[in-house]
Amino acid sequence: MELTPSQLAHAEAARGFMPPDEGRALWVAANDAIAGPLLEVGSYCGKSACYIGPAAMARQQTFFCVDHHRGSEENQAGWEWHEPDLVDPAVGKMDTLPLFRRTVHDAGLEDTIVAVVGDSPRVARAWTTPLSFLFIDGGHGVEPARLDYELWTPHVALGGTLCIHDVFPDPADGGRPPYEEIYLPALASGQFEERSATGSLRVLERIANA
Ligand code: SAH
Ligand code: MG
């Protein structure tokens, strides 16, 4: 099975930070997941959602996309990954929600994706639905990564999938928090086992409850 040429075209055209091979690995992982809702933390303009969404749609599952759409620290003016045209001039802050919505619409995913607009820890603290699939790609500072691990991973159902982006075991390749605050603790907990690695993407499975 493959993404259709149209699905692939939408994913590759979407703005964001997801190389094609890692995007495809996300789609494979979402296809292989157990039944139940899917959720990603960190949607930006909808690129990763264009890879996960088609798998959720094919399996008739709802896919929640959590983001405050104000950008991470590294997306702000003066930082490495800033895109100035994504600032809402009326507010003076980044706003990726309009582009996210357009991307989701154009990709034909409006009936599959539910955007949850808000601060990840705030949403997580109110969340109770077990997840078949969780993709963490939100704030990459130590504290945001630690909170996403602590507050979201307990919601992954037994046999469910935990995907983590921007995992760099070698500091020369990139920032450490997704590796040190999410990936390593997940494995050390004894509750997750690694299933695959593609670029900086790691796919884990919950093998035991807390
Ligand atoms: N998955 C995306 C890239 C995500 S970039 C892609 O495929 O392109 C990281 C995103 O995390 C940004 O959009 C930022 O707004 C979001 N983010 C960072 N900290 C957050 C927080 N505390 N709550 C909600 N979203 C957050
Ligand atoms: Mg990322």
Describe the structure.
It is a single chain. This protein has 210 residues and is of the alpha/beta class. Helices cover 35% and strands 22% of the residues. It is built from 7 helices and 9 strands, in the order ααβαβββαβαβαβαββ. It has a 7-stranded mixed sheet, sandwiched between helices. α5 (120-126) packs parallel to α6. The longest helix has 13 residues, at 20-32. The radius of gyration is 16 Å and the shape is globular. The mean pLDDT is 96. The structure holds S-adenosyl-L-homocysteine (SAH) and magnesium ion. S-adenosyl-L-homocysteine binds at residues 16-18, 42-44, 47-48, 66-72, 96, 119-120, 137-139, 144.
Assembly classification? single chain
Beta-strand residue percentage:
15-25%
Q: The biggest beta sheet, please?
A: 7 strands, mixed
| Strand segment count | 9
Mean pLDDT: 96
Rg, please?
A: 16 Å
Bound molecules: S-adenosyl-L-homocysteine, magnesium ion
